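We keep the chain:
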Amino acid sequence: MKLPAICVASTPVSIPHTAPPARQSRCLMVTSLALPTISNTTQSWTGHQSIPRLNPLHPPLVCKRTVSLETPAVHHHNHQRALIMQRKEYYRYHQVWRKPFYGTSSEREEYRKELREHLKRQIEEKRAGLKLQLASKVQESEYLREVDRLAVSGEREERIQHSRAMTLYRDENKKLMEQSWRDRALTRSLEALKERELLRHNPINWSGTLK
């Protein structure tokens, strides 16, 4: 990213020439500090562009890192960037309520129109949501009615099948009992006939004294 340059003057150091030689020998010579070129943030960036934040320890267009790279120019750039972003946010925030209170009549009317359109849109969205909710409830109620109908018809079929099974069971038991009764009566009649035959051939009272 290539940014426009900011010229930051280095701090000059002046050594008086009238000083004695011994005093001059104790003074250190300070060379001018050449700072890296940094963008002019407050002038060149428009409202729709985002200002990049610079790292004070890694200024742009400088390859080698040294201790002297953390310069006031980078901090000034970041400070101006923060101020511009705050100014943009304040402007956006105040533009929201500026029209209905301090705007012209046409702006206030436009704001009221937008507000009415927004309320109409909200009403339509709420109506559509209620309609969908009602349709889903109707569909759910129809589904539950169908499930209940199937459950009732299934229970009725189960009762019918159970009644038929119990009727068949009763009829079979009745047949078995009647057959048992008939077999028992036939057995008793056969035993009685056999006893009469035995008594006829071998009577108990041979002498005829028991009458």
In short: Residues 1-39 have pLDDT under 50 and may be disordered. The chain is about 65% helix and 0% strand.
